[in-house]
Design goal:
- The protein has about 160 residues and is mainly α.
- The chain has a single domain, classed as Up-down Bundle (Four Helix Bundle (Hemerythrin (Met), subunit A)).
- About 70% of the residues lie in helices and about 0% in strands.
- It has helices at about 1-20, 40-50, 50-75, 75-85, 85-95, 105-125, 130-135, 140-155.
- Helix 1 packs antiparallel against helix 6.
- The longest helix is centred in the middle third of the chain and has 22 residues, at about 50-75.
- The protein is elongated, with a radius of gyration of 17 Å.
- It starts with a helix and ends with a helix.
């Protein structure tokens, strides 16, 4: 079972790394506009914030809170339902990475991977203790999210 998990984590990392390798395209970009001035980091982040990954990430906070509350209450069904949202969220987020200029340390990859691993492990978890073990990678997701926000603000000059 650990081997399957290792392969899944490596596949997610490969997916995110491949997605981060290219420049984010902008709506309506054409070959003719290739000579146009590149977008500033602030513009890239603004485009990303209006995309599907940011919308999913915005809903993630509510799911994480629901996981925490259900876990503390011993609500297995509620915790499982909230954790079912994690894999689809991580996949959307991996497919639409944060602009590299706003995340030079690559925190986004760690953030997305932890979300994916927790959701993946929850799929086979049986009982509250197993769901809580599956949720373990989520413990520092909030800290990483705060660091990402700080990095975006620093690199884009936002407050």
């Amino acid at each position: 079972m650990a081997t399957l998990r290792t392969w899944v984590v490596l596949a997610v990392i490969a997916l995110v790394t491949a997605a981060c390798g290219g420049q984010a395209s902008t709506p309506g970009s054409h070959r003719a506009s290739a000579a146009a001035r590149p977008l500033s980091c602030r513009q890239q982040v603004q485009n990303w914030q209006h995309g599907p990954a940011y919308a999913r990430a915005s809903r993630l906070k509510a799911a994480l809170k629901q996981i925490q509350v259900a876990g503390q209450a011993g609500d297995v069904a509620g915790m499982r339902a909230a954790m079912q949202q994690l894999v689809p969220t991580a996949l959307v987020m991996a497919d639409h990475p944060m602009p590299h200029c706003a995340d030079p340390a690559g925190l986004y990859l760690t953030f997305v991977t932890k979300i994916y691993v927790a959701g993946h492990d929850a799929r086979s978890a049986r009982g509250l203790a197993a769901l809580q073990r599956a949720a373990a990678p989520l413990t520092d997701v909030s800290k990483i999210g705060h660091r990402l926000t700080a990095e975006i603000n620093r690199t884009t000059g936002s407050q």
